[in-house]
Amino acid sequence: MPFHFSPHAIQVKNCLHFFRGLPVRSFLGCLIAGVVLVGSAHAENAATDGMPVTLKDTGKQVTVKLGEELFTSFDYRGYNKPILYPIFGPGQIGMTRNWPMKEDVEGEAHDHPHHKSMWISHEISGVDFWGESGGKVITEKVETEFSGDPKPANVLRATSVWRTKDGDKPLLTDQTTYWFGGSEKSRWIDCLVEFRASYGDIQFDDTKEGLFAIRTHPDLRLTSAPKRGVEEVFGSAVNSEGVTGKAIWGKQARWLLYKGTVDGKPMSIAMYDHPENLRHPTTWHARDYGLVTANPFGMHHFLKKEKGAGAFKIAKNDQLKLRYRVEFFRGEVSTSDVEASYQRFANKQLTEPVASAD
What we know:
Structural class: alpha+beta
Radius of gyration: 23 Å
Strand order of the largest sheet: 9-11-12-13-22-18-17-16
Largest sheet: 8 strands, antiparallel
CATH architecture of the largest domain: Distorted Sandwich
């Protein structure tokens, strides 16, 4: 493997190159400064590289660990669509609702059974995949081993077919890639989903019910629901444009933040829309009861445009790529912190993984 100088190492190299003729004191000063730069670079890399990630595929789900701690599991066999559940933020705080995956958790509303932690879904060509009444998403291939030097250890790629329940007709495929990472302060999930019109022309319908979604822990709700068992809530919400509370619903924004306390601990969830996405900045189907979804298709509902204005068609064999990030923070974060994190995400070059030759 070839060795490459970092900018800091180059400064040391240049310093050594020109030391001849310099007084000893000047040479030592230059050398010490260079060593300090290299040392600080190593410290910075140690901080930004984050915790080691390990993935294990059981044949039904892929568990994702940061260090020795469970971050999440990608469950691709247990439900009508693949989901990420559970999801733990820093400090092993659960960040999403447990129901309907778990029945015996107090303080959780038993509404919208299709809201399963974190998922991707929409209405396609009149078939209701979102509410699970008309279609189901069947994962046919899961990859966790990829080529590279070094090989990426934090990447999961799943290929799924979206089929109708009646007649089991395939409508489209998706190839969804997740990258996982984190530190003591925050944990993040990057998602690149590629929808392919593999079986014929399709349409993402103009509806608020979609697309890239998470159902937060009930403590992060903006409003309580005593009749549904949610007596007390601690959440607040703001988007990148400064809109707050329930008013964020349907608005266009680059990112959205829910924050509050979960099990008595200050925690936050931010979701980011990539600037290269369709119709960026996206509109948000973000509810006061903890549903947060990035949805570029619901123009009729969100922006009061004519019915069907948000529909998006993909011709046979064409594709649509969308990219998102969800970040889970320890503690309450400021909007400036989230904006800085968003900019890092927006400017990050994404290298799609190459299948392992093994």
